[in-house]
Amino acid sequence: MSLIAANLAAVEKRIQTACHRSGRDTAAVRLVAVSKTVAVERIREAVMAGVTIVGENYVQEACRKMDQLRDVSMRWHFIGHLQSNKARLAVESFDWVHSLDRYSLAETLNREALKRGRPLPVLIQVNVGDEQSKSGLVPDQVPVFYRSIAPLEGLQVRGLMALPPYLDDPELVRPYFRQVAQLLEQLRQTAAHPEELTELSMGMSHDFEVAIEEGATLVRVGTALFGSRPQVGKP
User: Fold this and answer.
1) Residue 178 lies in a domain
2) Other beta carbons less than 10 A from residue 186's beta carbon
3) Based on C-alpha coordinates, what's the Rg of the chain?
4) Are strands 155-162 and 120-126 parallel, antiparallel or unpaired?
């Protein structure tokens, strides 16, 4: 067994254990393999080992990888901050966008999705820790923002994405995950189609078990799968 395959098995075991501990079905939680700066052949190896969703932070880096991985099957999720001038390419290339955080971007994504006749699943990014260094809406802004974008026919708003403050003790992150889960439930109570609001993208390598216990359906795991990545700047 390769190192990546072994790492994937260990991550899947952690997911199963967290689901069992919280009384959840493991099928309700999907792994997003975060492949920022990861070489194409290592992504291929992960897919061959069983990864089905790959998450990328930069559109152009992802597109280069997509060109080289057309012979293998996976879903591509965009999980980074999306610039408006990359929106068209994002709609062309990605299956999901996790990081919708402003109405102007929603309009652009909607227009491009309508052109292609393919609704784009999106998640609203929540800056649950109100950190200046991170994108996303503060929790109080989310209900109004959701109501403003819900009528856009080219978008399927599926839920929320959160990147809480990084804390060494995952238990200290639990209140943030719980707040996001409660916020999603509040949206469902007034949404015209609450059955569509089912997704919570939250939790990373060091804290995804706690995120699962608080309702995460998509966990974004990079380091635990691919190992520590080199410290490089944005491509």
Assistant:
1) yes
2) 14
3) 17
4) parallel
Tokens of 88: 């068209």
Structure tokens at 193: 């189609």
Say what the pTM is.
Answer: 0.95
Task: Report the candidate in 44, 38, 61 with the shortest Cα–Cα distance to residue 5.
Answer: 44
Q: What is the pLDDT of residues 174-207, one digit of tens each?
A: 999 999 999 999 999 999 999 999 999 999 999 9
Is residue 88 assigned to a domain? yes
Query: Would you say residue 146 lies in a domain?
Result: yes
Dump pLDDT digits (tens) for 22-68: 999 999 999 999 999 999 999 999 999 999 999 999 999 999 999 99
**What is the domain range of residue 55?**
3-226
In a domain, 235, yes or no: no
**78 and 121 Cβ atoms separated by less than 8 Å:** no
CATH code, domain carrying 46:
3.20.20.10
The alpha carbon dihedral of 205, 60, 235, 74 has a sign of positive
Q: How many domains does the chain have?
A: 1
Fill in the DSSP letter of residue 67: H
| Closest among 22, 33, 38, 72 to 55, alpha carbons compared | 33
